[in-house]
Predict the structure.
Amino acid sequence: MNVDLTNRVALVTGAAHGIGQAIADSLAANGAIVHYTDVDVEGAKAAAARSANCHSAFMDVRDESQVRQVVTDIADRHGQLDIVINNAGVNTLHHRVPIDEFPREEWDRIVDVDLTGLYLVSRTAGAIMRKQSFGRIINISSIAGLVPLRLQCAFVAAKAGVINLTKAMALELGREGVTVNAIAPGSILTEGTKKLFYGDDGLFRESVQRMLAHVPLGRPGTPEEVAHAVLFLASPQASYINGSVLTVDGGWLAGYAREF
């Protein structure tokens, strides 16, 4: 997919690996000046070094002052900030348990990154975009934000929060020339899902076929397939799309009746 993002300045959180890296790479390949940010700064630096006009920075989305500094520095450096992809996110590997057994510290860790971190980045970026009367904010949620799944209460709560926060921001910022949309991926083949499902030693490998039985395409998606959806929403061609949630799930939710 090719779109013209020449001279657009983009920030991608969680861009060192997986979906975030694929998104940042796609934006860069289409002409944007991309800032790869992550707590894994060495990974972000290596990823950004593969493309011209790309930069990297350490940013922990849970750190309010750091978020404000990094986002503001990017806007000051280029005189603009046009595209923000809120991709940074975590889930739990070892605490797939009912809510009465779910540790409070794990709840705080997931909600702090997946929801509060997104709010912190969007708050600073939104102020910049309002002043310039243009912007694209794209939030990475999950199908778990649209349907209930067992044994991951913090993740589903945070991702559902992302969905409604996306719509609220779309209402608030649309008249200022800023669109806000979300992507809801299904099962995507990343290092994280390999540890859960698709690797030879995946914690829940025995249930992977039951999960894929709900996906009409019969396979997990790729980070690049998520990146293509993000690229479209960031493009000039998506200028009248605001407050939408685009599922990238192989059709999983089209026939959703129960979780696996």
About this structure: DSSP finds eight helices and seven strands in the chain. Residues 189-220 form one domain. The chain has two domains: 9-186+222-251, 189-220. The mean pLDDT is 93.
